[in-house]
Design goal:
There is one protein chain. The chain has 776 residues and is α/β, with parallel strands linked by helices. The protein has a 10-stranded mixed beta sheet, with helices on both faces. It has a 3-stranded mixed beta sheet with strand order 15-16-17.
């Protein structure tokens, strides 16, 4: 808290406020400014003729809405003037309040009066949509922040979410209340010491609401023009325009701030993203209920071509816009719609006559109806996959008429943030396919969104990007892999924390983000070897001289990353794309089992169980592929099992399965046949085991053995042996018989039979076992 207090002291020198003052409007000469007595505030609503002094703000700090003994979130707040530099304010929000950089700005416009949806189901669905929206990192929701109307409903939705999760922290939720300082009930509670602020401001919501209601009889006019702050917002900006006891003083400043926020150049991406100096921040206006002022605010946004999403069934201003949108859809030429029709719609919903300002707003809404979308909760089912305020906002954004490259990129980021792969496929690639393919050719941007999809564990999006040109060889370089591992270890889930701990424990000469990418990946290879055992080589140990080397099998390296962090769906995608699926599945199973062993303690029971379950899944995948190959071509499958795997130090699949303890895989017919062949050497499988044991002690009995003729016939004989129930039905001519001198194609000499028999691994094993038991 001390650190935050110091920041507040520093900020107070930058953010001044009007001590209830108004600028001079005198054209001929500049009048002097003077302070107004705070005791007269309550009686002043229009003070445009009075001039006041600009002073440093003492109203900043944190607000405590509950009792001191209660555990609670205390939102930061600041009072500022309506002409303060907004770049300084943005610096406060990002650096000192540490808000995440915005990916989307949602400006909620609605009435301050209490309202209810037509159906209780609509209220539940709308709140769930707000929760999904608010809990998305990078979404800034802006409201007037008062404890009334739609603003209170938004805060209530966030509170319900926090209560359900048992959390008292807003984390990355940005529900920013922007209110006029003069309209805040009992604002004197928020004032602190000049230069020090108020930590914590005692704004007990129970006391404030109680006092506010008790004043309705004594000072009803003042109470009508003030409202308490909503305790469920995450941050507050209190704009002082010099007015008191008057709503709407912040409206123009808020609209200006939203425009500044979505166009400011501060949000340039890092050098790796390759997105230039400006990143477009999409902005949407969300209309719920509302009055004449709401219509005016919506029309101002439409003039800037900001998409407007209207919640049908919420009443009043929203109902007017919904009817106007339906009328415009029925007419081919909206210019032909007479003003009388607009007036009729307004009167039917609002129950009063229009004013000049209202007619101006209605005409603007009519002319820019293409930027309006309707979100009808009554047409959606609670369990429907189509439901979602996030999806409705995406739809509103995709309906923009003037789409440029920066807006398209912003839409893609939002689609990834909300995991709307199917919607992105339909709206982005199907409708604007050619234009989107243009910026997807920008490799750095494509890699950036691919990284986001991987970090957020979005397999559908990864498949979508692969379908539209993601080159894994260009993406999965050591540089990007290093970044991927580092960002993954920053996640708060248990798997990321576990991998991070293992990485720290792995013996290494040097660690840290300052390492070159190839050196960092060598450390990753050491961690894999630590998990798998020393029988596996460090696949990143090969000397890399390039600063950003590419790998021959990039899918394998992304597969290893996904396996380590237990992202099974992503692992399966890259497993299918790897060069050697059987070897990859065996390694994946071994990694999962190794991770389960490393996490085998009480606090990681769920982690252990998940790794073990996925290890079995990889075993099934390896066996399934092996069985398919064995059914198609047994000879090729047998050769494949002993073929060297370049990615794994030229070891073989059988060796990897043995060292990885994949017993179920080794028990398959293909492995059994190959292991039996290796085990018996030149002795044919048709030879009875008892005969082999007899030969081991009496080599002169070699005449009883049968030998394979050639390697190709050896394979054929093995297959016949395995596939035939009665061994005697096998082709007897496929073996070499022992004769004293040999000489024929199907004969072997007696001395040479003894030599070949003694070289057999099974005979050597019998000798070693006998000696070990009798001479130790």
């Amino acid at each position: 808290m001390a650190e935050y207090r110091d920041q507040g002291q520093l900020l107070s020198h930058h953010y001044g406020h009007r001590h209830n003052r108004i600028k001079s409007h005198c054209r001929s000469r500049r009048l002097s400014r003077r302070s107004i007595n705070e005791s007269h505030e309550d009686h002043v609503t229009d003070i445009s003729s009075i001039h006041h002094e600009v002073v440093k703000t003492q109203a900043f700090g944190r607000i405590r809405f509950g009792k001191k003994t209660e555990e609670q979130y205390k939102p930061p707040y600041i009072r500022l003037s309506d002409d303060d530099d907004q770049a300084d304010l943005l610096d406060l929000l990002l650096k000192h309040w540490q808000l995440p950089k915005p990916k989307l700005v949602v400006s909620i416009v609605g009435g301050a009066e209490r309202f209810q949806f037509d159906k209780s189901r609509s209220s539940i669905m709308f709140k769930q949509g707000l929760i999904d929206l608010a809990t998305t990192t990078g979404v800034w929701i802006l409201t007037p922040g008062s404890k009334n109307g739609v603003h209170e409903m938004v805060g209530s939705a966030v509170k319900d979410h926090l209560d359900a999760t048992g959390s008292y922290s807003m984390n990355n939720i940005v529900l920013l209340g922007i209110a006029a300082w003069g309209s805040v009930a009992e604002r004197h509670r928020l004032k602190g010491i000049m230069g020090e602020g108020n930590f914590d401001a005692n704004y007990s919501i129970e006391e404030v609401v109680k006092n506010h209601r008790s004043q309705e009889n004594t000072n009803r006019e003042k109470v009508k023009r003030t409202e308490p702050l909503d305790p469920n917002h995450s941050h507050f900006i209190l704009v002082d325009d010099g007015s008191t006891n008057k709503f709407g003083g912040e409206s123009k400043w808020r609209h200006k701030f939203e425009r500044f926020l979505t166009s400011h150049r501060l949000f340039s991406a890092d050098s790796n993203s390759g997105e230039g100096n400006v990143v477009h921040i999409p902005r949407v206006t969300l209309l719920v209920d509302g009055d004449d002022g709401s219509l005016e605010g919506c029309s101002e946004s439409l003039l800037e071509r900001i998409p407007l999403l209207v919640v049908a069934g919420s009443g009043r201003a929203a109902g007017v816009v919904v009817k106007m949108k339906a009328l415009c859809k029925r007419r081919n030429n909206v210019e032909s719609i007479p003003d009388e029709k607009l007036t009729e719609i307004y009167q039917s919903v609002m129950g009063k006559d229009t004013t000049d300002d209202v007619m101006t707003s209605l005409k603007t809404i009519k002319n820019y109806h293409k930027y309006i979308s309707v979100f009808d909760l009554n047409q959606l089912g609670i369990d429907s996959d189509e439901i979602g305020l996030d999806r409705a906002i995406l739809s509103a954004l995709y309906r923009e008429v003037d789409l440029d490259i920066s807006k398209m990129k912003a839409q893609m980021r939002l689609a990834i943030s909300w995991n709307q792969a199917d919607y992105a496929s339909e709206k982005i690639f199907d409708i604007h396919g050619n234009r989107y393919r243009q910026f997807l050719k920008e490799e750095t941007f494509l890699h950036k969104i691919a990284t986001d999809a991987l970090l957020q564990n979005l397999p559908d999006f990864v498949n979508l990007l692969l379908e539209h040109g993601l080159d894994l060889k260009a993406f999965a370089t050591s540089k990007y892999l290093k970044s991927l591992y580092e960002e993954s270890m920053k996640d708060n889930n248990r798997y990321s924390g576990f991998v991070k701990d293992l990485f720290r424990k792995t013996p290494s000469k040097s660690k840290g983000s300052t390492l070159k990418p190839e050196d960092y990946m060598k450390n990753v290879g050491k961690m894999l070897k630590f998990i798998l055992g020393h029988s596996y080589p460090n696949i990143y140990k090969a000397g890399e001289t390039n600063d950003n080397p590419a790998y021959e099998d990039p899918a394998l390296h992304l597969f290893l990353w996904a396996t380590l962090f237990n992202r099974m769906d992503l692992a399966k995608i890259f497993w299918k794309l790897s060069n050697d699926q059987i070897a990859s599945a065996i390694v994946g199973a071994a990694i999962m089992q190794g991770m389960a062993r490393k996490s085998n303690h009480e606090e990681s029971i769920d982690v252990n169980a998940s790794y073990l379950e996925n290890s079995k899944e990889f075993d099934k995948l390896a066996i399934r592929i092996l069985d398919c190959c064995w059914s198609a071509d047994q000879k090729y499958t047998s050769e494949m099992l002993v073929r060297e795997a370049p990615n794994w130090g030229c070891t073989t699949v059988l060796s990897m399965a043995y060292h990885g303890e994949r017993e179920e895989f080794l028990a398959q017919p293909a492995c059994y046949a190959k292991l039996s062949k290796i085990w018996r050497g030149d002795i044919a499988l048709r030879t009875h085991l008892g005969v082999i044991v007899l030969f081991a002690f009496l080599p002169l009995m070699a005449c009883l053995l049968k030998f394979v003729r050639k390697k190709d016939e050896e394979l054929r004989t093995d297959e016949q042996h395995l596939d035939t129930v009665n061994v005697k039905d096998a082709d007897k001519n496929s073996h070499i018989h022992v004769t004293f001198f040999g000489g024929k194609d199907n004969e072997i000499s007696y001395p040479w039979a003894i030599v070949r028999g003694l070289r057999s691994p099974i005979v050597k094993f019998i000798h070693y076992a006998f000696c070990d038991n009798n001479f130790d």
